[in-house]
Request: fold
Amino acid sequence: MTNATHPVPPALERMLTPTLALGVGALAVCGLGAMQSVEQFLRSYLFAFFFWVSVPIGALGLLMLQHLTGGRWGALLRRFFEAWSRTLPFAFVLFLPVLLGYAKIYPWAHPAEGDRIVAHKALYLNGAFWIGRAVFYFALWSLFAWLFSKWSAEQDRDGLTPRLSSNYQALGGGGLVALVLSVSFASIDWGMSLNPHWFSTIYGVIYLVGAAMAVMALSIVLLARFAHDEPFLHVVRKDTIHDLGKLLFAFNMLWAYTNLSQFLIIWSGNLPEEIPFYLARVNGAWGALGLFVVLFHFVVPYAVMLSRDVKRSLRLLAPVAGWLVLMRLVDTYWMIGPDLAGHHGAESAAFHPHWMDVLAPVGLGALFVHLFLRQLKSRPLVPQHEAELEPEAAHAAPAHA
Amino acid sequence: MSALHGLMAEFDDPKAVVEAAEAARMAGYRKMDAYSPYPIEALSEALALPKSHVAKICLAGGIFGLVAGYGLQYWSSVIEYPMNIGGRPFHSWVAFIPPAYETTILFAAFSAVLGMLALNGLPQPYHPVFNVPAFAGASRDKFFLCIEAEDPLFDVEKTRAFLAAQPGVAAVAEVQP
Reply:
């Protein structure tokens, strides 16, 4: 399919080159940093990757979810979710530095002498199995992404046939179960195992909710840039924006709920094998950062998004969503930063952010957004033959009225 | 002074009632209301209805619930019945959050429902619009726009002519008080 067959917003075209330049440039500078310290590069890179890969993962989850629930919000953002999910094979390539250098940052790769807890987990936490699982996760997710995009292209051509409809629902339901399980294991492998003594059964859920929130927030930001041009001009409606705002609001509440659940249980139990995780994160500079996350990831955005007007206007909602993308990044830093610094079990963890902790997320993020935009551009930006997006009579109130 | 409650135009099409409401607002009418079997978002905008205060009442109820729920726990476990439970502090704020959250929801929901009833005057056993026999269709497949006699621009003949001139109008009826 060539570009001439469907309209592409000029804002998308304008973003392609700068995102690529910024991504390659920032990562190249990080590459220079790697010559100084490979360990520090890998730590910063893993942090950046752990956050940015959550966006396509969350997109795959929301894609399956909207095939199960239906709704106009899902039809409007389906191409966004599909394009994000098609960046997953590229994400595997971007994961290669961590796959090659995992032994330098994961403590379980070199357990301390007499550390029986980590020795006991070696059957699961060993290099070969860890790498094999990562390959499996990306293969599974890429397969899901490929199937959904393939069927969606068939729908563009032939309309929604009963066969496609049942395919969507079967893989939407079964795939969501597989996705939640695989993402849960992936988050344990990549994030939680940085502290192999510690465990939390809700960790995967927290990561997945954060992922859904990140992709929803980022999609709102990007939609706001495209909404005034074809093909979005006549399909972006105020009530659909309202739905997106409500979903973002709900994801933020769910994020707070899952985090509070983990904190409440560990705080109440106060057990020596669990509590060090929070001791390292509530004392000192990490504690200040944690308080910042609570206030500016949850409390303030929650209060702002209580307003109906904010949720209904793309112009007001987009800055809030952009802020929440940034907060997702800061929260990820707070979640895995103390363990990356390598101080486990202490009353507090050292806090010395490195310049690559800033530059790696910028570079990787720009690269991910570039890959996403290229995928988004390759197909019509709104689904064709989609009943939800057909113009209606009196219900319709354009967002720009 | 007219003895009527107002004049009511009947429409078969949701689009027509939205356009008629817009035209009436443009013509300067303010005291009017529209009736539809299902919510039409554009209709509320066309009527330029003032913002409802239910949201503020709901927020106030929620804040009250939060303070009351947290205060109840603080009062009982810190001031009146302090008990050492597993060495945790009397003011166990982490454990206080879930019940305080629940009372927030409880009071917000109650104040939203009660505030809605207080502001819209329901239950209302009598309303003049039901004096128009065709109005039964408002809960099935008909759409109505009623311009009330209280409106300063209201004039039986002129308003009737205005409503009758709207595209898509099926009938114009006098609404007895």
